[in-house]
Design brief:
This protein is α/β, with parallel strands linked by helices and 341 residues long. 37% of the residues lie in helices and 14% in strands. It is built from 10 helices and 8 strands. It has an 8-stranded mixed sheet with strand order 1-2-4-3-5-6-7-8, sandwiched between helices. Helix 2 packs across helix 3.
């Protein structure tokens, strides 16, 4: 028995030694210069606005005397870069883009400041600031569509129109439906994914600024956007595996986790209600979907439309979840026609 224990101890120590040597090798072999974009706090040349005590990356296009269109990006944690095709609306509208708190190039915050309610409060402050008392239009994509729905429920009197481009789950009921749809989908933990995870993590250890969240933002950006799209559980969102059209300045990893957690109850279960109050908004809401999305596309959004007194759906052919990237001219033409109603 003593011999067995001795061999086991030696084997364990050998394994630990090999792991330590591998870690040291990986640390030094991944040394290099890895860039993470600075936020508006560290780069004052970036366009920004001070909202609710937070510095947000924001810019606007067009004549401020024209009707205001506020664009709300997806995530949580993404930024508005992928939605910039919408600035073509600036010939007739004043188009406002902003990175949500903790996301993109906006100020990084502590987890307790990154909540769904704070995101809705920021959107309200954006609407008031740019709308200057007039009604505004909202265009929300994905998670941004969830925020736009929740905002419409809270402040229907401030809105002239709402476009929801493949919004995420609006209620606990629809979250459960989403889980049923994705139940059999899984991310294959293959060698390429494992290598990406390990290498990205070690690379993130060499990032020194521009702020304390830069390393984790780098890691999660690599993991999310460089995973093999053919084995990704959400591949049903897209027309093909080609994600080269998508680009972002910087992913907000803490915002992604914290905001999601703020939508859970004390037992860790999703508790979402972004629809109570929608009965007070009687104007037609436009749902925009891509024909390729088999997860939260046409069929799924038909079920979410029931929460709205008046809603219609337009399906953009040969487009996936990145509707405004896949088919910018076609999707924006539909939006423009809706805004002119």
């Amino acid at each position: 028995m003593k011999k067995v224990f001795k061999y086991f101890l030696k084997g364990t120590l050998l394994l630990l030694g090999l792991l330590a040597l591998t870690a040291v090798f990986m640390y030094f072999s991944t040394m290099g210069s890895y860039q993470v974009a600075a936020t508006v706090v560290d780069d004052p040349s970036l366009p920004s606005i001070h909202i609710n005590g937070v510095h947000l990356h924001a810019e606007s296009f067009g004549n401020p005397n024209n009707p205001v269109v506020v664009v709300v990006h997806g995530g949580p944690g993404n930024d508005y870069r992928y939605l910039l095709h919408l600035k073509s609306l600036a010939d007739e509208y004043y188009v406002v883009f902003y990175d949500q708190r903790g996301s993109g190039l906006s100020e990084r915050l502590a987890a307790e400041e990154l909540t769904l309610e704070n995101c809705l409060s920021d959107l309200d402050a954006i609407v008031d600031h740019y709308g200057r008392g007039d009604k505004v239009y909202l265009i929300g994509h994905s998670w941004g569509g969830m925020l736009a729905s929740g905002y419409t429920a809270k402040h229907p009197q401030k809105l002239a129109g709402v476009v929801l481009a493949e919004p995420g789950t609006l209620t606990t009921e629809m979250f459960e439906e989403y889980m049923r749809i994705t139940n059999n989908l899984a991310l294959d933990l293959n060698w390429d994914l494992f290598k990406l995870l390990v290498v990205s993590w070690f690379e993130s250890l060499h990032i020194d600024g521009p702020d304390e969240q830069a390393g984790q933002d780098y890691f999660w950006t690599k993991l999310v956007w460089e995973s093999d799209p053919e084995t990704h559980p959400l591949r049903g969102y897209y027309c093909s595996s080609d994600q080269s059209k998508y680009s972002e300045w910087r992913f907000g990893s803490l915002a992604n986790r914290a905001i999601r957690q703020s939508g859970m109850d004390e037992n860790g279960k999703i508790n979402l209600d972004l629809v109570s109050g929608l009965e007070n908004y009687q104007d037609t809401v436009l749902f925009l979907t891509g024909s390729c999305n088999t997860i939260i596309g046409e069929t799924y959004q038909n079920k979410q439309m029931k929460y709205f007194p008046a809603a219609r759906q337009e399906v953009i052919q040969d487009a996936g979840h990145w509707i405004f990237l896949d088919k910018p001219e076609e999707s924006i033409a539909v939006v423009r026609a809706y805004l002119a109603h």
